[in-house]
Records
---
Amino acid sequence: MKRPTWRALGLAAVLTASGITVAATQSADASGVVTTVSSVKASNGKTISVTNHLTSEAQKQIAHKARHEYLLVWAGDANASDTTGKTIQETRIGVNPVHVENEDTDNLPGPDFLAVIDATKGSSDYGKVVNTATVGPLLENEPHHMQYIFHKGDKIFAGGLFSDTTYVFDASKLPALALSGTNLPQDTPCGSIPDAYWVLKDHSAYGTYMGAADAPGPCTYSDGSVRVGNGFGGSPGEIVRIGTDGKTLSEMPAALPTGEDPTDCVDYPVLPQATCANPHGIQVREDLNTLVASDYAEPRNIVLDPVKPQDANIFRDTVRTYSIKDRNRPTLVSVSHMPDGPRVERNPGHEEPRGIMETTVTNLPGHKGAFAESMCGGVIYYTPDITSKKPVWREVFDDTTAAKSINPDTVEGGGCDGGGWVQTSLDDRYLYHAVIGRGPGSLDDYDTGSAKMVYALDIRKLVAAGSGTRCSITRISEVWNGGSQPDCPKLVSALPIKDLTSGGPHWGTLDNFRLGADGYYHETKSVDRLAISDYFVARTSVDGDHRVCMVNVSPTGKLTLDTTFRDENEGTPCVDFNRSTWPHGKYGNAKPHSELFVVADADLK
Amino acid sequence: MVLAHPGHVVATAAVGTVALRVFLLVAAAVLAGAAVSSRRVWTMPLLSVPVLLAVSGTSGWFRVSVAVHVAAGAVWLGCVLRVVAARRSARAAVTARVAPLAVTSAVAVTLSGVAQALADRVRLDGIAFDRLVLVKAGLLVLATALGARALGRLTPRLLELTALVAAGVIGAALIAVPSAPPAGRPILTAYGTLTPQRPGANYLRADGTWTRLELPPGRSTVTLPGGGRMLVDTGNRRGLQPDGPECATALLVQPSLAQCPDAALAPEDASALVALEAWLHRRGVRALGVQADASLRSRRAAGLLGESAARPQALVLTGTWESASAALEELGRTAPPAGVYLAPWLMTGPILSRFATTAPLVVLPFDPKGFDALRYAAALPVGEVPTAAGYRAWGGVESEPEVWATTPASILPADLGHDHGGDSGWFPGGAMVEVAALHPNSPRDRAARVPTHWS
């Protein structure tokens, strides 16, 4: 070959090698993610860690010491385990190569994580995921709930449904997170299936553990009492107090020392002393030394038959109050069965009192009431006094009233509408409620479905009435029109959440922070926005609505979607957790289950 | 193909993939054959393209037979096309020039086809595939006769053209008809799994259930529960006969397995059961019930655990999947106060979820959440559920025995689209947590340290 040709080839080779090198360098710079790791040694001797993946935006915020407010979202990796083997056969073959690439990433089991989303109003990073803090080495925790609200100095308690593990995060250095401790299954031998948390003023937390001791049989609690359980995911559950380092401070029984009515309280396997004690929602009034927890269902048996439960009473109808005079000894004071309402359902599992999932307390001194809501029954209950040894609970609102404001053709509104998060405003004026709803045809061919929504009720008159409250839904007309008594809650606003899947909004949280004129954040009782997570587990194809949305709340309680809270990749409202790439890598879709507004301690006064 | 440790997923055969493969095969054969029929030596290697496409997934003499059949068919087809493409005035000369090659390749196609048919025991009253083979053979005879007639004298144009076109079609068909999957290896498709694909006992897993099938030697068709059909070829060698779905899951990953898992009690499983009994004893359990059956493994396990108590505080199941399932079915919604414990080989998600009302725990000499176990689960075809037997056959890493509590896990009814469970993984739709390591002084043995008061 002629020399000039060799020369040309050699030059080409050098240029090519240089180009590849430059491209690789640029690629590394383009990602710009910096990782930091925080670890703790768990009680089993293993190291548990959280790894921050801080984006360039997060690094700038840290470098500039900017004061930001964040929305933390506890999310699980979605992978092939979330699609049934059967439905994969029906999966549409993706023609778009990007679609195929996304499927491939979803087949990898990835870590679960806390997403840190910038929620600072007016920030150029508003809606951006600035950090994903992945936990390890436990995979497939099935992230569930955290506490309902955050205060200065608090840790963040986040539970894993499948791993039976509670992670305790330190958020004082946001947008980065550290791990303060973990609580493993072995640390709560008398309970399983952690659900929700309430953080006390001393920053320790109560957690509801819905299920029984991991090993069937008698279990001895911290006070020396003994209850017999039927195993992991069974009954009875318990109340656990967890320290800021993740250590168990106490385990206390949710079940009565004597049995409950075995017809009302169905347990599988059968227990020698029946119980309905499966605490799910939890809220506390420390000033009243009272803890309220709602019993939802025996977790193991929820899926026996998803549409027609073998026994409707697997979904509990009880709410329990506990005295917390001794913070380490929450002691059962009352067990109340929620009353049945005027609806007569074809499916007994849809009757009003079935599946009391969540509860919320009033907040102001002088108010002693609390609310509870039924997931399967689709109604709201209220008691004016949680300190009573026999609190009186009445049905005060049926979700049907809110559903019909969105769709007047609703056939079955409240029943099995998937009501979840319920929360009083911090000034006790409003009650917010997230309802998953049902797509048309969910129950049968004639089912028009039920609205997927977040709604707000005006509860001022109800709460102000105190023990003199008269509101009670007892007539069928009140299911549709709302309660007829003057103090009944009034629907202020119902915000439909458009979701073409069979999922919908399940969880939410209030923004209790306001940026002050001094440039610092302050806690406020005037809530002007809340966040909700629209959660769906993909069962067909790869589409699923894993969105976290911001909702503005007007002074009159009107709810509107904040369309400026946009996904940084799609540009559409709400942050979409269906994406190929995260700061921690190409792990594909994730399932956002719960969220919390948080401000770093140094930025909070 | 088999799932070999570290394991890679076997490709499944979707309809679109087969059609594409056939198209590529025919196209390659057409081009290669046309080139070779020019009788230039350097074109011979082009035959490797359709041959390699056709022999993919085959082995042994079957591979040789397919290679000869496809190569010869491609050459024969190429000759036909060369004649068809020639000008009418030159067609006779072209026919004469390619005739020796065409006749030779036709004979090779015939011989290799006959050999395959004999080996596969193709019968006149056989399956559709068999009948198609016979039709092929008949058409080949006809085409050969027509070709010979064309060589002998010039025929009227219409007859000549018809014969040439028919020959072309037959040639393509010779190459394009798909063959049955290789015998003796599990068939993995999106519609079902058949293990081990040998004469005799086989297990079909489709729609989440296992069905036992008795298959004849050679080719046959299996009707799937969903109404589809699967062409199978069990070959002639019987090999190990699975005695249940548990054995089938082991054969799935290791077709050369020498014996079914229930034929012996593995030392790791024996140690796990002994450790379990000691752990239960430390928890205050004095009356242990033991479920067993006639299988050798179960008899040995029951022997280790001692006589079954008449009124047990805890029950340990050591039988096969079938007998253990029957025992769990009988328990229904009850369980002894200290619980129901499954021997390691009963670890499979469907048993755990189907009998969830008995709240079964399972003792395992490996970590189902460990990296190796997750790799095995990920290596399985979609829809297949991991099993302890499969994991061991795959060569999975064992560890200290632990007791695992299990529960189906969800929070909301599935129709609300908020289900937390999935239908694959070690426990479809469920959760498992380690309750205790089974060594007396293990710091994780907290459950045993909790004082117990058995009534």
Note: Confidence is low (pLDDT under 50) at residues 1-15, 443-453 of chain B.
---
Amino acid sequence: MRYYVLLLLFIFSLLSRFYLLNTVPPLFDAQIQILRLSSAVLNILSIFLLYIYVKKTLNNTKIALLSAWVMATLPWVLEQGRIYSYASNSLFFLLLFLLFWISLNNLLARFILLISFFITLYFSYPNLWIFKTMPVLDHPIIFINNLFNLLSPDNLFFRNFTFWWGGVKEVGVMYILLFPFLIFGLLEIINHRRYKLLYPCLFILFLSVVSPSFPESREFYFITPFLALTVAFGIYKLFLKGIQPLFILIFTALITYEIIQFFHYYYIHYPQDIISNKSNIKDPF
Amino acid sequence: MNKKWFYLLSAIILLASLLRLYDLGKTPLGLEWDEVALGYDAYSILKTGRDQFGSFLPLTFRSIDDYKPPLYEYVTVPSVALFDLNEFSTRLPSAFAGIITVILTALLVYQIVLSIPALRSNARKISLVSSLSLAISPWHLQFSRAAFEVNISVLITVLAVTSFLYGLKNKKLFLLSALFFGLNFFSYHSARVVSPLLMISLFLLFHKSLPIKKYILYFFIIWLTFFAGFIPILMSKDAQIRFSATNIFKPGARSLSDRDLETIFLEKRSQDNLAGFDMAGKIFHNQRLIYTDYESLRNAFSNYLSHFDFNFLFIKADAPLHHAPGFGLLYIVELPLILLGLIYILKKGLNRSSFFILLWIMFVPIPSSITKGAPHAVRTEIILPTFQILSGWGLILLINFLQKESKLFRDAGSALISIAFLINISFYLHQYYVHTNYEASSYWLHSRKEAVEATEKLKNQYDRVLISPRVEVPLDFWLFYTKYSPEKYLNEGGTISGGFADDRNHFDKYEFKYFDYNNLPKDQKILLVGTNNSLPNDFPGLANIIKTIYNRDGTNALLFAENRH
């Protein structure tokens, strides 16, 4: 059964990443074409890496499948998978690193892995601020403010600060319908003391909050697999453990509508918005 | 209730009274336009039984054309009768309601905590901490020290819920809660939605503990009596004006910068047509489905969640009138306590009482989320004292945790928490009591009082006094500060319209109308009051300016000029 689901996910990912790849978003530099292709491939691989990572960590195939499904459909992940994006490519290496990390028990091996990861990150994401400059941290209140700003519902569901690098203005990081599952998943993770699952988030959040380019912290993109995992936890606990099939049906209908609406905005409105703002785009994607 | 609890609560009440009554008429300095309208209507009711429009004991006050619920006006009547018409008497009902709410919070929390086994032994402590937290709350203090109807609504809501919970064992209190739930229809707009939701939740959650059916019947008879009084308001076109002017689906003209959904839809539809996807446009951007449209609902949900935004709650709130300069609505030190209280309740203390508190928090932003200007501190003040209850739980849990630790750790932890609270609270009090009158003086419109006093001194030297409507809602300021006799005013015709741009109102020598400085009659001596802060300016560069009134922050507020005669 899980292989059918994985196959379906693969087909969905393939179609959603490669369909009209060279025209949506409009391509302003022909050299980017091949880079978009590599981004799409790494993006699809990241989805399956997440599946393996969650399966190995939780030993639960259903949550792993759900995480991969959420990751594959998240608007932000989809948008970044269709452009030349350092953040999206580096996410693949981050997930690979995490997978090796949980497989290794030897301290020295882990240390070497960590060094290797940072070296890889240096090459895959040369613009990452930690390799170039110092963090911006004037006041502790600003730190907390930035943190809540990034995690605000506005940022997660309604506003997209990535318009200038591949994002649809009207849709945030994830679909609104996933909101209750995100909250429930978070509570479940706390309840079951699975804090370890979210440890990498602390590092990612710190990286994003003190980023010199805040509020446009591209590093925040690294949080997406963990958001997918948390939502999957929520869906698993709410739906697959005792909720009426009617709710599942309603949820499926609504999420399908939301995904279709996102594609509508992405394939019809976004290219027109981008073309009318062409003169303001500094770096082609 | 033991003696120690009683003495401590008395000390909290004393503190709450001090913080609410000290310098009440002077901080914030000056009344804003809703306050003067409320005050003058109360004065008019006291003297004539009619509001400034001449309506006899109205159930909706037209006021500045925003059709206010009537409760605040009526409770201000005794205050104006006792202390005359001034800033203090207009704000006193709000301050008084604030003090009573602090007392009731202690009783409410005590009853709720008693029903949570994990916290029961700390019921008295938690009730005191929550009450204290409300007594010093920036959010509650802000609206207890100004004439905001919502502060009365907070009191009525807490009264209704407290009497309902105590009423489960006392039938008289149970019936009293029906009276308060009913009265809330007349206290504030958002309470008209939230209060019935809270009442229904209480009935559903406590249906097994309700008194016998006879009392439930009496309860609904009382409540329905009030509801029957509310129906004409609900159905009237005039009262619905406020909703149509503020709802996000059909934005009114007040905020011209807002792009309404219909315009957005039309833009998107034309993009769809251009791309050859007419049908998709009909599905996703259909203005006929504006109330059920996904985009509209998304906006509403975004507004809803914005009320829990960190920036809104802890850093800068919303409009300058709604918070102390440089301060949010809650203390930032409360944040970890609120989260701690919330997590603890969800994990170990979730029962019908604590679940009701969570529902209370969830219901309050609903009306505000379908209106423009969200998040809105006034429309959601009835969320109080839920945050204080959560922080009270959090603080006691933290103290209990520290008490189990070593002495050094305990003392260091307690010292750290106390210092953090002291710094945060004293900074707030400094910002509010010192800086409000300077940094927010232009918003609290103190300049209007000075202008009225000046025109009263000067008016005898002139044939007419023209006041520009660009001096935002000038009529009520001049009526209020001149204490113009309501009998005389109504005999002269009363208010024609309270709208921002209306230029038909007049009394005594005062006429509230637009003027063209270069085309004024030269055979009369006219005093002009206007402003050059809003476009178009009232006065050209060569106008004969005779006086300038400044805000406390040094900015230019109002200008006085003479015509060329």
Note: DSSP finds 24 helices and six strands in chain B.
